[in-house]
Design a protein that fits this description.
single chain, elongated, two-stranded antiparallel sheet, mainly alpha, 37% helix, 331 residues, 10 strands
Length: 331
């Protein structure tokens, strides 16, 4: 069971590493707009040449993770008003309203009736009325090198009938054709605005680098913990496997009690002798073996004596003079 769990754990390490690698990298920005403006409205572009439709996408995206697409407008349709699901500090700002209405009008004369008044627009911002009191929320910045044309920072209540229109906005542009980068000082010329936008872009780039470095370090630390956990599980697996082998080997040995002498021959004196074991070497007679247990006679009190010999062969001796002596029986 431990072995199976260990291999399953090790097998998911590459998947964990891949997930961590995906999570520590920043999400790619998706700011875009397929809407196009007529050439006569090029003065509405920001310092980088972005149309009001693309610029408003940067404004709206600043509050929702820089992921926003400003769609092209269809005839007899208007862009959506702020509501409970879409309102935000960015969507309710002056620049959002001015750029959205400019994007409506620059797409052609068919959309003159699709413009909202500022009071109608602001009425959808019920979560926080202060969102309708600034041209862009101070706690957010535009991504990339986008900037906001100066005319789009105008308080909409100053437009005729509090409604965005081409005449008033073009007059404002004629007075100040510069662009503004939120969080930076307003520029008095297009070139100064470009410099400010470059500074903002550099700041965003530095932020991205910090996020990448921090995420990479965090991912490496998490991967290290995974490797350490896998190593500890492996060591535990090896330890248990070794202990199991030792236990199986231990049961193979038979422990003999001191009283168990079934395989030993009772000797007359000294330690028991195993059948077939060499007792003592003898140059004359070779190796002596105890062929079977000996029997002790009780009357001899533990001493061993062979029974009387029955061999009574008679030996005859002769004297030096050649005479025959008496026979001596051999006992």
């Amino acid at each position: 069971m431990v072995s199976l769990s260990f291999y399953l754990f090790v097998s998911v390490i590459p998947c964990i590493s891949t997930i961590l690698a995906v999570q520590v990298h920043p999400v790619a920005r998706a700011i875009s707009s397929p809407a196009t403006c007529n050439g006569e409205y090029s003065w509405m572009n920001d310092a980088q040449g972005y149309s009001p439709c693309l610029t408003v996408a940067y404004v709206e995206g600043a509050c929702i993770g820089n992921n926003y697409e400003q769609p092209a407008l269809m005839v007899d349709y208007s862009y959506s008003l702020p509501n409970s699901s879409s309102e935000s500090p960015c969507y309710c700002s002056w620049s959002s309203y001015n750029l959205m209405m400019a994007c409506t009008l620059c797409q052609g004369s068919n959309f003159t009736d699709s413009v909202w008044t500022w009071p109608t627009w602001a009425s959808g911002c019920t979560a926080n009325s202060s969102w309708t009191e600034e041209y862009f929320p101070s706690e957010y910045v535009l991504s990339g090198d986008a900037s906001i044309p100066y005319w789009a920072t105008t308080n909409p209540t100053s437009w005729t009938y509090a409604t965005f229109n081409i005449q008033d906005s073009n007059a404002t542009y004629s007075q100040n054709p510069s662009s503004v980068t939120p969080g930076a000082s307003s520029s008095s010329s297009g070139s100064t605005s470009t410099s400010s936008s470059s500074s903002a872009s550099s700041s965003n780039s530095n932020t991205d680098v910090g996020a990448i470095v921090g995420g990479t370090i965090g991912g490496a630390a998490a991967l290290l913990l995974v490797v350490i956990g896998a190593y500890l599980l492996y060591r535990r697996h090896v330890y248990k496997k070794g202990a199991s082998v030792i236990n199986r080997q231990g049961t193979a040995f038979h422990t003999r009690s001191p009283s168990d002498s079934s395989n030993f021959a009772p000797s007359m004196s000294g330690p028991p002798v195993l059948y077939g074991q060499s007792l003592s070497p003898s140059p004359q007679n070779g190796t002596v073996y105890s062929s079977q247990p000996q029997t002790t006679y009780p009357s001899l009190q533990g001493s061993f004596s062979p029974p009387p010999r029955t061999d009574t062969s008679v030996y005859t001796t002769h004297t030096s003079s050649g005479q025959r002596s008496e026979a001596i029986p051999m006992v």
